[in-house]
Every structure is written in C-alpha cells, then in structure tokens.
Write a structure and sequence with these properties.
3 helices, alpha+beta, Pnp Oxidase, Chain A, homodimer, eight-stranded antiparallel beta sheet
Chain lengths: 139, 139
Amino acid sequence: MKGVEARRKALALVERSGIALVGSNSGDGHPWIKAMLKMETEDLKTVWFSTNTSSKRVAQFREDPRACVYFVDFSDWMGLMLIGQVKILSDPESRQRIWREGYETYYPLGVSDPDYTVLRFSAASANYYHQIDNLTFEP
Amino acid sequence: MKGVEARRKALALVERSGIALVGSNSGDGHPWIKAMLKMETEDLKTVWFSTNTSSKRVAQFREDPRACVYFVDFSDWMGLMLIGQVKILSDPESRQRIWREGYETYYPLGVSDPDYTVLRFSAASANYYHQIDNLTFEP
C-alpha cells in the first residue's frame, strides 16, 4: 500500500463514517474513549464536533488538548487513527458553522446557548490500516 | 435506566461485539486507540486480547498499564466504556487459553512463539450509555 492509496482509502472511510471515536486524557492521565458524531471534516487534517460545554470531554480538553480521532469499519478490518489536538471554540462563526436543525432540543437558547460548544480537532499524524497493510503518514 | 438494566444491556453488547476499541497512553502521554479482536470476557470485569510482543501497544502498556476498553453499536447509539488496567501475560496457561486455530500463520513457532503475547484487561469502572441514558457503575 502506497501513501497515495492509503490517503485515498482513508478519506473514503472518513467520508462514509457518521461517527468517530475520540480519545482523550482524563484528569489523572487515564485514556478515555467516546463515540461522537463527525460534523464536518477538511481533508484528513481537521474534524469538527460539537458537545455540551458542561461535558466531561470539554473539561478534559481544557486540561489537556491532546486527542486522537479514530474511524473504523468493523466489517473490513479497516481503520484510521488521527493524532492531534482539540481546540475548544465558542466564537459565533464556528457555532453557526456546526449548528444543525433540531439542536434547539438540546440547546434551548439556540446557537448562542452557553452550553453549546464546538470542538475542532487538528491532526498532526495519520495511521491507516487495512487488513495487514499499515501506513503512517502526514495528514 | 437502573443499574441492573444497564449491566444486562452492557453484557449483551459485549457478547455480540467481536471487536473492541482499546485506549492506551503513548510514551508521551498522548491518547491512542486501536481496534482489537475481543478474545474472551468474564462478566464485565475482564477482557482478554492477544497481540504481537513486538507491537506498539505492548511497549505502551509496559510503560503505562492504564487503558480503557470501549464497545460500541453504531446503529443504536449505544456504548460501554470500561476503565482499568492491562496486564501483559506470557505464562503457558494464558497463552494456551487465548490461542486459536490458525494462529500459526502469525506465530510460526506456535503457542510458545516469543512474539505471541496475551493481554488481560481488568476493569475498575464501567460507563454504559444508550441514547440519552447514561450510567456509571462498578463492573
């Protein structure tokens, strides 16, 4: 598997995945995992999520922004691990960008609800595997 | 959702999952995730895996045994995170227990192949969610 092929397959996996697994450090440095809806992506470099400002993950990323984002296809032994950092965003532009119809149910005050937070993950490294093929590359 | 119901649903999720996501700390304390075949489980307390002795995860768990094991059903917004520690085992009994037909392909020297390693994860805490229900309990 060459780099070009790995990148193409990894992008296809990201595009068809609605959910990503997000790895974080808890306060005591213990690894945690959470399934989150993938809201938007830019190439393999950036993944956008949204969550409650009061959530455990926001508290964890405030203390330690290091994260990994994992996309997986259980049916074909295929996965992509992106290693990077999470930025917690509350600017109006980011809030508007990730806001979706129906979010009022969770955030009654709308797009400026203080409990609505946007997370932007930036990848520094990518590892893609498919069956026994495995490649690490710059995302 | 009561504790008894969460435990019952969590156990059913574990039983029907062939693959678990394993969270580890890399050498620099960065969270990593890897999909691994779930080999055996005991209640929600213990999960057995096997891997190559030369693998990155074995090196990581040697430095920091803290781990989480995550079972997820993407189709029904359901997941279980077990928080605990990994023990790296190489005793004959554990090797024999997890050894499966066909492993000779990966470990040509058989059950005593030095590159064959058993990982036994022990959970200290469990968090199960289904839709908007979420419960943390002792596994």
